[in-house]
TrEMBL record, chains A, B:
SUPFAM superfamilies, sorted: Class II aaRS ABD-related, Class II aaRS and biotin synthetases, YbaK/ProRS associated domain
PROSITE patterns for the chain: AA_TRNA_LIGASE_II
Molecular-function annotations in GO: aminoacyl-tRNA deacylase activity; ATP binding; proline-tRNA ligase activity
Protein localization: Cytoplasm
Name of this protein: Proline--tRNA ligase
Record text on subunit structure and interactions: Homodimer.
Function: Catalyzes the attachment of proline to tRNA(Pro) in a two-step reaction: proline is first activated by ATP to form Pro-AMP and then transferred to the acceptor end of tRNA(Pro). As ProRS can inadvertently accommodate and process non-cognate amino acids such as alanine and cysteine, to avoid such errors it has two additional distinct editing activities against alanine. One activity is designated as 'pretransfer' editing and involves the tRNA(Pro)-independent hydrolysis of activated Ala-AMP.
EC number: 6.1.1.15
Family designation: Belongs to the class-II aminoacyl-tRNA synthetase family. ProS type 1 subfamily.
Length: 584, 584
């Protein structure tokens, strides 16, 4: 295709609204344009990238045996009321009324619709297992849409839903989806990690997130230096150290005038922060809970919510904390609390000896407290965030590191949550009704485009992985309007390359070479070939890979070999890099 | 693909909710399922048909030089307020508010969004002409969604929008789109007609609708028996007969007690209905207009609205008619009306001599009225609906016929309506601001699937045109569970056919042959091959085309030849049939 035939509105300046590199470069390269907050138009170049992603996703889903369908964007409220999510989902669910004042929503996800379809169409164990997927526009009314495609309101998802007679069948499909995702993101040339994730309140046993590794990622992901353990922050754990073995000292109250912080307390008392039990008051639907953590640990609220089996937790205000404990903030402690206040400790807290804590009176702390001798041993769970350097929970040899990731995929065992709520059962082999077990599997198709850019760019622009590039090869015809020879040779090379199966963008614009090179670098095609009077005179092509800094003069045979190697090799290189990082 | 690997929920009974054949058969064949009123899920088989339609549409759009983009479904109200359509569009525009109480709508069409994009990105004549298209989910909140895909609320459109410096440039792209549509619908194997349509109040000069011919079509389309003139009812016209040349008789009032109808009047007065001028009172935004038509003609309200240059007309109630004319309904006539009441006559009314009409008094009519002698000659326009047998307005040799059509495409010259309202101008060659001229071009992609079925079915099911079929070939393996030879031979044939480039559905289900045949007929694959112990013993395949009534025993070489001829020939046959009908 000639550049004069495709609308590529590049920008010289970085748009002020764009913080992330991917947002900046996708706007500057003319891939997307903003219509309104969180709403983007895919321009011709961007849509070519999107279609390439969709194609790889579709091929791998088909290969896994999943069946493609297409469900409506607009969904009736009744189904969401059945599942209980009409109330629960919050303002991200965009609700609307049709002309007859009936309630609908724009689908952010399709569990309800597919479960409704399944209960109408699937009646026998003989129809199971089955796995349906779709690639579709979805809507989530983000409170602050930002980062371009990364967190838009309207976006494109691949979502799949599988149905099974039992958990063993779900496990097989779950693994097959996990494998399909591994193949998909590998083919897309992304450096990614699959990490264990928490299933949350919804039930089901297993869940994995797929993250593209990038410094700009919104999520922290945890991985082991030695084995292949990887998890997100809500799921990651590290074994608690062995219980301390110390001679028990005498408990005492110590004046700590105005000293409310852990660090202040450690300094004032001359002890390590790890010897301090700090308290955090949280509320679930206005019911207070007191959480205990080691002074050097941080609370993970989601872990706490799961441990307490509530949907959502929030931190108490100082007033709420004082009302629940009767003690001033900064001096709250586990000894002598109102009996009605439930207490949950992090596992590490249980191993402490001779620890310090607030005395539930102003300007007073305990030192040398010990469980059972001075106060009852509380219930405990994993409440803390792991930190870099923690021991790995799997191999006990490696240590945990923390990196940033962009979530682009999620595989999730739903179990029987929706089947129960919406009455999806089938006849089993013995003719009895059996609840169906479900899994769901998502890929953020439009987000993949942004994530790929976050991982593949330099100061000149995007560097597309071979699988995602809008065109395989860019040809720059230098002063083609003045040189008919250049114009003809460039067009002929374009035609031969397209015939050989490459998609080619021929820059035939009436621009200075510097502008042409800058455009090619900005839009990030993997291969650039320059056609000028000079190279024609030498009977060669001037070639440069997007990542290279020097030109190479190649015969056409050499050029063809270079392209073939570059394109087929791209995925392998990415794959290799990924594996190095996974073990590095 | 094996039938056991694809979910095809066929139904034996015709669902009660489905009136149209296409709706019935697409439900029965397991192509679609209803989620809610006007909302359908595309099942695996249906989606394969949809994708084939999309592919042909996309190829022909690309070939025409149009550039594919993808705009958001959710559109900000501000743009619709600028164009004036936020108020005008009526309740079919589904309006909604986001979490910040800002107004949005679900896009039924994208003129506003693309015009906004163009005014941000297009600044110079050098960027024009350009034509953008998308294939996208749209929403129209129909008051009574029905007929399945034919008139759903959520549907898939291909919509294109072109931008030009002047009308001459628009004409070139308009013709190129017209040609692309001809190629598209021909390739899809549809018997269709392009008909002239009216541009309505929106301006612009030309417009054509593309209709699939089917008895169930909602629209009447008019075509000439001799030339290629074809138009929809709003646009179709027929030349008025020459003015009557009669000796003028004396006008007189005649008692017509209780005779309000045209037919009653004709009988009572002993004259032809064509000699009666009937009156129709209409209102536009509560302003009354009196329309005059010959007693044997019918009013077309849309023609009248255009002639009066108003957006919308409605028929007056009897009370409104009496209030506007001061005369009782049934006796209203053009002579002696209030001067403030505007009168518009159909062109045919002007040619009448000695005509009869109401006398604006109860139980009284005039006879032998003549223009100018008895009452002033009114303004006139084409207000009547053409009828079968009318003279052709183009060739003056043929007569008009009326058939039913399903509108599947529309090409439309928008002119400068949106450019003016939304301020889309560019610098012309002399550096002056110039308003941009636009065209728009739609194809009802999902509706094409239904229209194709309306045109291609029999009492056993669908008969897909080759371009639309979900699978090219169906293989029926008879008693495959009992005969390993049949199972193996069917699978091997399946594999060879797929390798030869055909998509194949292999029915390997454990069903009786009758059930297998009925399914194949219902889902409408063009070619069926039966594999049984009997045919294996003869070393042949049992072949039947979907339209045929007898089996043929073929060697594999003959089978391959048959398939090649059938598939490549299908489009040509349809094309030929189309041309025959176009001239028949």
């Amino acid at each position: 295709m000639r550049a004069s035939q495709i609308f590529i509105p590049t920008l010289k300046e970085t748009p002020a609204e764009a913080e992330l590199v991917s947002h900046q470069l996708l706007l500057r390269g003319g891939f997307i344009r903003r219509l309104a907050s969180g709403l983007y138009t895919w321009m011709p170049l961007g849509l070519r990238v999107l279609r390439r992603i969709e194609r790889v996703v579709r091929e791998e889903m088909d290969r896994s045996g999943a069946q493609e369908v297409l469900m409506p964007v607009v969904q009736p409220a009744e189904l969401w009321q059945e599942s209980g999510r009409w109330e629960k989902y919050g303002p991200e669910l965009l609700r609307l009324k049709d002309r007859h004042q009936r309630d609908f929503c724009l689908g952010p996800t399709h569990e309800e619709v597919i479960t409704d379809l399944a209960r109408r169409e699937i009646h026998s164990y003989r129809q199971l297992p089955v796995n349906f997927y779709q690639i579709q526009t979805k809507f989530r009314d983000e409170i602050r849409p930002r980062f371009g495609l990364m967190r838009g309101r309207e976006f494109i998802m691949k979502d799949a839903y599988s149905f099974h007679m039992d958990h063993a069948s779900l496990e097989i499909t779950y693994q097959s989806m996990y494998d399909a995702y591994q193949r998909t993101f590998t083919r897309l040339g992304l450096d990614f990690r699959a990490v264990e994730a928490d299933n949350g309140a919804i039930g089901g046993k297993r869940s994995h997130e797929f993250h593209v590794l990038a410094d700009s990622g919104e999520d922290a992901i945890v991985s082991c230096s030695h084995c292949d353990y990887a998890a997100n922050m809500e799921k990651a754990s590290s074994p608690a150290p062995a219980a301390e073995q110390e001679a028990l000292l005498e408990a005492a109250q110590v004046a700590t005038p105005g000293i409310r912080s852990v660090n202040g307390q450690a300094k004032h008392l001359g002890i390590a922060t790890s010897k301090i039990v700090k308290t955090v008051l949280v509320l679930a639907e206005d019911k207070p809970y007191l959480l205990l953590l080691r002074g050097d640990d941080s609370l993970n609220l989601i872990k706490a919510a799961h441990a307490l089996q509530v949907d959502e937790l929030r931190m108490a205000t100082p007033e709420e904390a004082e009302a629940a404990t009767g003690a001033p903030v900064g001096f709250i402690g586990p000894k002598n609390l109102p009996e009605s206040l439930p207490v949950l400790a992090d596992l590490r807290v249980l191993g402490l000896c001779n620890f310090s804590s607030g005395a539930n009176m102003a300007d007073l702390h305990w030192i040398n407290l010990n469980w059972e001798r001075d106060l009852p041993r509380p219930d405990a769970a994993d409440l803390r965030e792991v930190t870099a350097g923690d021991a790995c929970p799997h191999c006990q040899q490696g240590i945990l590191g923390i990196r940033r990731g962009i979530e682009v995929g999620h595989v999730f065992q739903l179990g029987q949550t929706y089947s129960e709520k919406m009455g999806l059962s089938v006849l089993d082999e013995s003719g009895r009704d059996a609840l169906v077990t479900m899994g769901c599997y998502g890929i953020g198709v439009s987000r993949v485009a942004a994530a790929a850019v976050e991982q593949h760019f330099d100061d000149r622009g995007i560097i597309w992985p071979a699988a995602l590039t809008p065109f395989d090869v860019g040809i720059v015809a230098i002063h083609a309007r003045k040189s008919p020879e250049v114009a003809a040779a460039a067009q002929a090379l374009h035609d031969r390359l397209e015939k050989a199966g490459y998609s080619v963008l021929l820059d035939d614009r009436d621009e200075r070479p510097g502008v042409q090179f800058a455009t090619m670098d900005l839009i990030g095609l993997p291969h650039r070939v320059v056609v000028s009077d000079k190279v024609l005179a030498q009977n060669v092509w001037e070639y440069r890979a997007r990542r290279a800094t020097e030109n190479t003069l190649l015969s056409e045979t050499e050029l063809m070999a270079q392209l073939a190697a570059g394109l087929s090799g791209a995925a392998d290189q990415e794959q290799q890099k990924h594996q190095e990082q996974a073990h590095g």
